Amino acid sequence: MKKKLCFVRGQRLRQARVNASLSQAQMATRLGCSRQLVGQLESGANLNADQLEKWCVACGCSSDVILFGAPAAESPCEDPLTRQFAALAPDLRNKLWVYYQVFLRNGAPDRAPHF
Q1: Which domain holds residue 100?
Q2: Residue 111 in 3-state DSSP?
Q3: Is pLDDT at 70 greater than 80 in this prediction?
């Protein structure tokens, strides 16, 4: 039973990544891991809370989608900001993600980014 649940969760991870127009290599960069680990997670390997949070931020989806299969629009935990992020074009989402990572690493910049 546990293997089946892990496999289903892995399929949901993959679908969220594909819906966000991200390759396994791009997802690995965002998670800070190898492409092989992304493949293992999508195949049902154990996923920790930090990886789940980063995955959901990168894909612009709620963790309910991954854990319970709830559609994003019906997810009770999804906030409006997540919904707006998911609606952005993939290239703009990628730019914002990079900016977010720089912000976390270096703190607030002196000026706003130009997209």
Answers
A1: 2-106
A2: coil
A3: no
CATH code assigned at 31: 1.10.260.40
| 32 located within any domain | yes
38, HSE (Cβ side, Cα atoms, 13 Å): 22
Question: How big is the chain, counted in residues?
Answer: 115
Domain annotation covers residue 114: no
Q: Buried (b) or exposed (e) across 82-114, using 16+ Cβ within 10 A?
A: beebbeeeeeebbeebeeeeeeeeeeeeeeeee
User: How many separate domains does the chain show?
Assistant: 1
Q: What is the pLDDT of residues 15-48, one digit of tens each?
A: 999 999 999 999 999 999 999 999 999 998 888 8
